[in-house]
Specification:
This protein is an alpha+beta fold. The chain has five helices and four strands, in the order H-H-E-H-H-E-E-E-H.
Length: 200
């Protein structure tokens, strides 16, 4: 075989090998690219699913927070309304004409008398405001009802806005407006709380 033929054959073999290598490399790279695309699609799908879950959780969190904030705002407004109503009721009681105020206090005292010997503790202001005929009026009403009418006004006084404290020995029945309003308020706030935060 001549040298030219040998060289030609070597070149042909090299060319054939190069083509085979290129063909194998192309097939291999196509497979790698396909696998990479599939993996990327899986990662993308997982990321999308995760982001949907996160978005759902975030949305629920926002809804819960907004709902809680709304309930808090409603509770604050309810409490303001209750504050305002109680303040207005207290103001109306304290601004009553003296004769009307006296009637209210008499009506409050009479059902609370047990022995007829109790002491009525008032504020300094109410001692003046209720006047001298106040005690006689109560005792006369007690006598008419068949009870002992010997109530007295206590020498000491309490720092209360209005109302009275009825003292029987060491026992005191607090009927000051502040005490009565606080007691009523607790019941009302409890009802408001039940409306706003019902138990499941």
């Amino acid at each position: 075989m001549s040298l030219e033929k040998i060289i030609e054959r070597i070149e042909q073999d090299a060319k054939n090998q190069a083509e085979e290598i290129i063909k194998n490399a192309s097939a291999s790279s196509a497979k790698i690219i396909q696998e990479a695309k599939e993996r990327a699609n899986q990662v993308k799908a997982q990321a999308l699913e995760e982001s949907k879950k996160q978005a759902g959780v975030h949305k629920q969190r926002l809804i819960s927070t907004a709902s809680l904030d709304l309930r808090k705002d409603i509770l604050i407004e309810k409490q303001r309304a209750i504050d305002s109503a109680f303040q207005e009721a207290m103001d109306n009681l304290l601004k009553m004409r003296d004769d009307e105020y006296q009637k209210v206090i008499v009506k409050m005292i009479l059902p609370n008398v047990l022995t007829g010997n109790e002491e009525i503790i008032l504020s300094e202001r109410d001692k003046i405001r209720l006047g001298k005929g106040f005690l006689d009026k109560i005792n006369n009403e007690l006598s008419k009802a068949g009870k002992k009418g010997k109530l007295t006004i206590a020498k000491d006084s309490y720092n209360i806005l209005g109302g009275f404290v009825l003292r029987r020995g060491n026992i005191e029945l607090n009927n000051s407006f502040e005490s009565l309003f606080n007691s009523i308020r607790e019941d009302i706030e409890s009802e408001v709380s039940k409306v706003l935060f019902p138990t499941v």
